């Protein structure tokens, strides 16, 4: 029996949020991309406050390198957080993205306490070696000030994926029971709110390393037009990926994408 979802409703999300979570919510039946909605809002409002944009479905959701993120109606969570930056020079992307990944896992474990979540560097969340969540952080400028938009796409009960990603992607719960996506959205916002003020101290890294699914695996890391093959060892204190390359050199990478893993 397929899992049962309820619709995304702003008032229900608010009912699960503590008053201390000072995030302004925007909900939509459908958008092209919640990241694009966030950027448009920043350019027109010049806001100084954190905003969250949540859609029931996306027609043009995207992830790394502009790749399409499958976003069907009624089965997933598609949301973006708009974060005004007082000083972009103080922004640590490695610690921020690893912290965001851990906070999303913390939130998902509330609704799915028996599910084993794992992290693929830097911020993809996996269940049963299938990707169930993608996270994308983008820096941009609007009206002369800096913003970061954090896009989060979660396959909550999604089961029928396009053929080109059907083997790689999966839903967290595809059979049986009811799932309250409004509660999950609120839990994600709450977990992020707890993490964000102190992410630069790296307190989340111990849990990230516990969830790190690439440890001791042979990986190929693509960095621009180059690629590196080696054994993934751990995650550095700044969120970088530590790899022992095939010539025995140990290197730390702070950007790039793991494009192949041999488990």
Describe this structure in words.
This protein has 263 residues and is of the alpha+beta class. The protein folds into 2 domains: 4-210, BirA Bifunctional Protein, domain 2 (2-Layer Sandwich); 214-262, SH3 type barrels (Roll), CATH 2.30.30.100. The protein has 5 helices and 14 strands. The protein has helices at 10-16, 34-45, 93-111, 181-195, 205-211, and strands at 4-5, 24-28, 51-55, 76-85, 118-120, 124-127, 130-142, 145-155, 178-179, 218-223, 226-235, 241-245, 250-253, 257-262. The strands form 3 sheets. The chain has a 7-stranded mixed sheet with strand order 2-3-4-8-7-6-5, with helices on both faces. The chain has a 5-stranded antiparallel sheet with strand order 13-12-11-10-14. Strand 5 and strand 6 (124-127) form a beta hairpin. Helix 1 crosses helix 4 (181-195) and helix 3 packs antiparallel against helix 4. The longest helix has 19 residues, at 93-111. The radius of gyration is 18 Å and the shape is globular. The relative contact order is 0.17. The mean pLDDT is 95.
Gist of the model:
The chain has 263 residues and is α+β, with helices and mostly antiparallel strands. The protein has helices at residues 10-16, 34-45, 93-111, 181-195, 205-211; strands at residues 4-5, 24-28, 51-55, 76-85, 118-120, 124-127, 130-142, 145-155, 178-179, 218-223, 226-235, 241-245, 250-253, 257-262. Helices cover 23% and strands 33% of the residues.
């Amino acid at each position: 029996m397929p899992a049962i979802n309820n619709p995304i409703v702003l008032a229900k999300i608010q009912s699960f949020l503590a008053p201390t979570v000072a995030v302004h919510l925007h909900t939509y039946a459908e958008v092209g991309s919640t990241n694009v909605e966030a950027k448009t809002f920043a350019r027109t409002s010049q806001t100084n406050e954190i905003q969250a944009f949540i859609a029931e479905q996306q027609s043009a959701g995207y992830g790394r390198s502009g790749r399409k993120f499958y976003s069907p109606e009624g089965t997933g969570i598609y949301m973006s957080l708009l974060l005004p930056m007082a000083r972009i020079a103080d922004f640590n992307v490695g610690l921020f993205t690893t912290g965001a990944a851990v906070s999303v896992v913390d939130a998902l474990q509330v609704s799915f306490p028996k599910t084993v979540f794992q992290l693929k560097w830097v911020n993809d969340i996996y269940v049963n070696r299938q990707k169930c969540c993608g996270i994308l952080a983008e820096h941009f400028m609007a009206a002369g000030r800096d913003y970061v938009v954090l896009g989060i796409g979660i396959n909550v009960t999604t089961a029928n994926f396009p053929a080109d990603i059907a083997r790689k992607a999966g839903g967290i719960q595809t059979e049986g029971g009811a799932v309250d996506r409004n509660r999950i959205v609120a839990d994600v916002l709450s977990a992020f709110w707890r993490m964000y003020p102190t992410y630069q101290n790296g307190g989340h890294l111990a849990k990230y390393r516990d969830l790190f699914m690439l440890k001791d695996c042979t990986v190929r890391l693509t960095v621009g037009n180059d690629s590196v093959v080696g054994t993934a060892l751990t995650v550095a204190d700044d969120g970088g990926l530590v790899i022992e390359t095939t010539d025995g050199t140990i290197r730390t990478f702070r950007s790039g994408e793991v494009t192949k893993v041999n488990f």
